[in-house]
Design brief:
7% of the residues lie in helices and 56% in strands. The protein has 659 residues and is mainly β. It has one domain (28-658): TonB-dependent receptor, beta-barrel domain (Maltoporin, Chain A, Beta Barrel). The strands form seven sheets. It has a 22-stranded antiparallel beta barrel. Strands 3-8-9-6-7 form a five-stranded mixed beta sheet. 49% of the residues are buried.
């Protein structure tokens, strides 16, 4: 039997309380900007993600949720994942090894990565090409104080965004440098949790520069993790773990007239677990992710009805593990894209463009031994048109033709109708397809325990949405039905079809569900929000609940903000029980849980009636208030195993200063 093994990290510090600075402060200028808007304008703001151009939320041809700047400041959040878990129909999940922090949309956690969700920064794609979509480091380390709002398309988005826009598109929209300013931040809590954050804005004529940085170390988690040892006397071995959770992130953006450059860097360290091989190799330990993103864009106004954007986007991702399989991964993708926006009449809008992708990556193990290496190119052309048939009916049609190297040309379409029987009520009927191209590892991995398959074809999804939304002066309500059929899903085929487990197009899964969301400003001070998702899924063999996501999920939040600068907010995320197939014998079984977070902010200037040029505030944030220890399925291989995800309550206090 394998002996107990300690994870080689320092002992956690004793409980400390430091004067620190708020991650999502109440900004004085931001508060003034909010007061200049009506509540209806805040609720039905313009968005850009669905059609790559500005349009009202109620007029966008997609099922869209928006986390506004007001909500960001009300409910707080130390990580981007904290914030995304509040979005209707999104839920935090995890994977056994390479993508430890994931977001699943509408119950879709089919793969051992978050490859079915496309992440954008200001409309530009952030992809990882070796595994197929790892975003853990961004979810955990992106500087959240730079975010202006977050737009989320629930459903396919490949017609305009290409590969990976499968079940959701998440667009992080950052602030702009509208004035000169500086804020410095830090955070601290129990068991050695601490961090720092800063943001600077500079406006010099036509040149605008904004930059932000983030460092954060959460409390380490001491826990026992067990795995089975076939043939041993007891059959079980216990490993004493000390799980790290720390990361760094930075963002820079420069705008000069029509030219924009933006870049981000994120890094995160956590633990990984591969229970299936633990009795052969020490397959647990520390994993490190980092990602570099950059985009250079130029906007040109050709005429009053023709505008165009030119972009070159680069993303590099690396991943390393401390123990078996001792992987070292390095990959990058470059995208060159040309997009055109035409408005030939007040009834017609046209978007068309083209893009070229090139991605390359490799994975090595000690030796060094190259277990995967490859490169691929692809290109696509796309177009979308909307036409106002009558005053209250809008028709949408679009397509993307994409050609991935060594794969046949394919076309994914989009079509739909938006009907507004009254000025405040709209009905959306939408159909769309999307695709995900196979990753480098899925095609060319050459590992003794797993092989790639050069004959893979892209995954496809066909999705239909029917929704009704009502937009009031102070509230917003929406209900939506969706049905999505996924085909040619890439699986790790362990059926014996191949001599060793091999990636294969081997499954079809249908998701159906109903989602509800609502927001209500009872007054400018009092705000409530909530959502509910119920989804079912079934594969081609009739097996149900084939993803480790609960059928039922519900979210609710309430926030009070006084004129005296006091903000008190509570938000709860509930996930129901999983199918019994995910019960475990050794470690704690996944179960229904409530993630309840408390956020309190006190603006010192307003409370004490200080007329200072600087802005100060103190805060208290309590994550997982109910102190629930959460284990999730060891997702990626066979069910029946679990791994630690959340150790329980975490409390932080601090102060913010804006200069």
């Amino acid at each position: 039997m394998r002996s107990k093994r300690n994870f080689p990290l320092q002992k956690p510090a004793i409980l400390i309380v430091l004067i620190s600075f708020l991650y999502t402060p109440i900004n004085a200028q931001f508060t003034e900007d909010l007061l200049s808007l009506s509540l209806e304008e805040i609720l039905n703001m313009e968005i850009t993600t669905v059609s790559k151009s500005a349009e009202k939320l109620s007029d966008a041809p997609g099922v869209v949720s928006v986390i506004t700047k007001d909500e960001l400041s009300r409910f707080g959040g130390t990580t981007l994942k904290d914030i995304l878990e509040r979005v209707p129909s999104l839920i935090g999940s995890t994977v056994y090894m390479t993508d430890r922090s994931t977001i699943a949309a509408r119950g879709d956690q089919v793969l051992a990565s978050s490859s079915h969700v496309l992440l954008l920064i200001n409309g530009r794609p952030v992809r990882e090409s070796l595994e197929g979509g790892i975003k853990s480091e961004i979810y955990e380390s992106f500087p959240v104080n730079i975010i202006e709002k977050i737009e989320v398309i629930r459903g396919p988005g490949s017609v305009l965004y290409g590969s990976n826009a499968f079940s959701a598109v998440i667009n992080i929209i950052t602030e702009t440098a509208d004035k000169n300013g500086l804020s410095v931040s830090g955070i601290a809590g129990q068991s050695g949790s601490h961090g720092a954050l800063a943001k600077a804005k500079t406006k010099l004529g036509d040149l605008n520069v904004i930059a932000a940085g983030r460092l954060f170390k959460k409390a380490e988690w001491e826990t026992d993790w067990q795995y089975a040892v076939p043939g041993s006397a007891s059959g079980d071995t216990t490993v004493q773990m000390r799980i790290p959770n720390e990361g760094q992130g930075a963002y820079l953006e420069m705008n000069y007239k029509n030219l924009r450059f933006m870049s981000s860097y994120t890094k995160w360290e956590n633990a990984y677990f591969i229970a299936d091989y633990a009795f052969i190799f020490p397959s647990w330990g520390r994993a490190t992710w980092d990602k570099t993103f950059a985009d250079l864009g130029y906007s040109l106004t050709v005429s009053n009805f023709w505008k165009m954007d030119l972009n070159t986007t680069y993303t590099r991702s690396t991943f390393k593990t401390s123990s078996w399989p001792s992987s070292s991964r390095d990959s990058y993708e470059t995208v060159v894209e040309w997009t055109n926006f035409l408005t030939p009449s007040d009834k017609t809008g046209i978007i068309f463009g083209g893009l070229v992708n090139y991605f390359k990556g490799d994975e090595t193990t000690p030796g060094p031994v190259v277990v995967s290496e490859g490169n691929r190119s692809s290109f696509g052309i796309y177009a979308q048109m909307d036409y106002h048939l009558l005053k209250n009916i809008k028709l949408i049609a679009g397509f993307q033709a994409n050609k991935v190297e060594n794969i046949d040309l394919d076309i994914v379409p989009r079509g739909g109708m938006i009907w507004q029987p009254t000025g405040r009520l709209n009905v959306k009927a939408l159909y769309s397809q999307a695709f995900r191209a196979p990753s480098i590892n899925e095609i060319g991995l050459d590992f003794p325990e797993m092989k790639g398959n050069p004959n893979l074809v892209p995954e496809k999804v066909h999705s239909f949405d029917l929704g009704m939304n009502y937009q009031g002066e102070q509230y917003q309500l929406g209900i939506n039905y969706f049905n999505s059929k996924q085909t040619d899903i890439v699986i790790q085929n362990r059926s014996g079809k191949f001599p060793v487990p091999t990636y294969d197009n081997g499954n079809e899964i249908t998701f159906s569900g109903v989602e509800f969301e609502g927001k209500y400003y009872i007054s400018r001070s009092l705000f409530i929000t909530g959502s509910l998702l119920y989804q079912t899924n079934e594969d081609m063999n009739g097996s149900e609940n084939v993803t480790p996501i609960a059928n039922l999920g519900a979210k609710s939040g309430i926030s009070y903000r006084s004129d005296k600068g006091v903000t008190l907010s509570l938000f709860n995320v509930y996930q129901g029980d999983l199918d019994e197939k995910y019960d475990t014998r050794l470690n704690p079984s996944p179960k229904a849980c409530n993630l309840m977070n408390l956020y309190c902010n006190f603006n010192i200037n307003k409370m004490l009636n200080l007329n200072l040029p600087q802005n100060y505030s103190v805060f208290l944030q309590a994550d997982n208030m109910l102190d629930e220890t959460i284990w999730m399925p060891d997702w990626g291989l066979a069910p029946g195993k679990s791994m630690p995800v959340n150790q329980g309550r975490a409390v932080y206090i601090g102060v913010n200063a804006e200069l």
